[in-house]
Design goal:
Chain lengths: 278, 162
């Protein structure tokens, strides 16, 4: 048994020495070829296995990196979207406030700017709450306007806030006339959340869709010439004494955030201070 | 036995070709086939150690492009020697395993240098020892330490599970 082990070792040593001798005697290529017969297929197999192992490892690392990168990019994307939203919102607010300030500066009226802090939008009542109250010397039944036109009137004044009845409130009525035809009438809110212009049939025969209506200034509550809305449809009731025109309000009451509360005398005609084109 | 030999030599070769380059520190790579040969020789005896050493060395020689047969010879001798005397040494002790592998790597390096000198190897002994053999021996010892720790941890884990 021991002899077998030694014989094996000696055989291996002999093979090695033979290979080395062959190489030093100038038969390097033959010895190399001889070994290559055995080792080349093994090396090819090793290379394939090595590439496969490295490939799996590299794929795993890539996958891990891509996953981490993906998570990071998602977070960054979310952060940037929030930031963009904030910027857009600030930009919008800035633009609205600039319009409001420009209106406040050009109007020949004493006004007070206010921010809408609540909305009551049920069918029974349509009202806004603004952050101006008794301390700001706001009075009941004063007009509330925005750069687009008339919003409504203050119906209740509290310590730090005031309730504005908007034009679409079913209890709201405003004296108005059609700018083009001077047809007078009353603008009323209705429970559907729209406003309509009630006028005498013989006066309103020539009213057309798209006509602009402004406050008439009669009654002294609202200054004259504040846009109310445009005629969207005419409800012809034949021989009835009064006809109705459905209006598209000049102000989007659901979106108005900043308003001006008129605090001074309301005798002036404001037609020139609001856009009437289109 | 042949299948196991082929498998281990092949496994050692794969590890040498894939893991060793990745484990390179300051240009020094561990001699993974030598570690495999030593482990096999300790478990399977001198015949297996010699054959595994010869096959692994031959593959390394062929891959290296130098004189074919040098590493085959030195690793076959190391495998045989360790297989023959391993049963008489307390090789289960980590204090023997780690320095043992360092010494074996140095011994293999010395043998390889001596053999190559016969064939007019030009590099001076001091430089070969300082920059090639000793760093590789230390690296092999470091890997052996990690292996010993991993095995101890695995044993402890196995003992804890009911």
């Amino acid at each position: 048994m021991r002899i077998r082990k030694v014989a094996l070792l000696l055989s291996l040593v002999a093979v090695c020495l033979l290979l080395l001798t062959l190489q030093t005697r100038g038969y390097a290529s033959r010895a190399g070829d001889l070994v290559a017969l055995v080792t080349t297929p093994v090396h090819a197999g090793l290379a394939r296995a090595s590439r496969a192992a490295l490939g799996v490892w590299t794929t795993y690392l890539d996958w891990k990196n891509v996953r981490a990168e993906n998570r990071r990019l998602r977070e960054e994307n979310q952060r940037l979207r929030v930031e963009a939203l904030r910027v857009t919102e600030t930009d919008d607010e800035n633009r609205r406030l600039r319009h409001l300030l420009a209106l406040q500066e050009r109007l020949p009226l004493a006004t007070l700017s206010g921010e809408v802090i609540a909305r009551e939008w049920g069918g029974w009542v349509r009202a806004l709450t603004v952050n101006r109250g008794r301390g700001d010397r706001v009075a009941r039944m004063t007009a509330v306007i925005s750069p687009e036109g008339l919003v409504g009137r203050i119906v209740e004044v509290r310590a730090g806030a005031a309730i504005v009845q908007v034009l679409t409130d079913p209890a709201s009525t405003v004296g108005a006339h059609v700018v083009r035809t001077r047809t007078p009438g009353i603008v009323e809110g209705d429970p559907r959340g729209t406003i309509r212009f009630k006028y005498m049939a013989r006066d309103g025969a020539s009213i057309q869709t798209g006509d602009l209506l402004v406050t008439s200034g009669q009654g002294g509550l609202f200054p004259r010439g504040i846009p109310i809305g445009r005629v969207r449809a005419i409800d012809d009731r034949g021989s009835a004494l009064f006809h109705y025109a459905v209006l598209e309000p000049a102000v989007d009451f659901a979106r108005v955030d900043e308003v001006l509360v008129v605090t001074g005398p309301t005798g002036q005609d404001l037609t020139a201070y609001f856009p009437t084109g289109g | 036995m042949r299948a196991l030999l082929a498998l281990t030599v092949f496994g050692g070769g794969v590890a040498h070709a894939t893991v060793a380059p990745a484990l390179r520190i300051a240009g020094v790579t561990p001699d993974l086939p030598l570690i495999v040969v030593v482990l096999l020789a300790l478990r399977r005896g001198p015949e297996f150690g010699a054959l595994a050493g010869f096959a692994a060395g031959l593959l390394q020689d062929a891959a290296g492009g130098g004189l074919i047969g040098v590493q085959a010879l030195t690793k076959a001798l190391i495998g045989f020697a360790i297989g023959a005397v391993g049963s008489r040494l307390s090789v289960g002790q980590p204090l023997v395993q780690v320095p043992g592998l360092v010494l074996l790597t140095i011994a293999e390096g010395l043998a390889r240098f001596a053999l190559l000198k016969l064939f007019r190897f030009p590099a001076p002994f001091g430089e070969v020892m300082l920059y090639v053999v000793l760093p590789q021996a230390l690296y092999n010892g470091f890997l052996a330490t990690l292996l010993v720790l991993a095995l101890a941890w695995a044993d402890a884990l196995r003992a804890r599970t009911p």
